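Quick question, first post here. What does this chain look like in 3D?
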Amino acid sequence: MPSSTVRPEVVLLITDLDFDRHDDPSRCYHRDGRPFTAAEHDLLSIMTPAEIAAAKAQIQLEDEWERELDAMKDAFVELLMKYFAQLPKGSVVSDAVAIMTAEDHAEYERLVKIVAAQDTLEHSAEHGEN
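> Answer (accepted):
Ran it through. Tokens below.
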């Protein structure tokens, strides 16, 4: 196999390695805690430099997206809190939305879709799709 060939299944395995787990240094684990199978170990043992580079690039993209998502979540909370500060205790999100400026409402609509989508994806990943 030419060294420039990048196998997506190997890149996926590399990106799913749990680098922080040290309870059994002779084993590799997925980020969800499952040990790698013998077949997965075999694939990792013959990974190429190009596959390692592709996995590093993917991990960097995921890290960047996570930072951007965290910033959007923070902006969403900050936006709501600006209006909750004007409302009586016990108010709910719809109360805050009702008094938003048109500009803030547009930003709320943009951010709520992103935050809600991420929460839905995380819930599905943690609990499975039923």
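The CA atoms of residues 12 and 127 lie 21 Å apart.
The mean pLDDT is 88.
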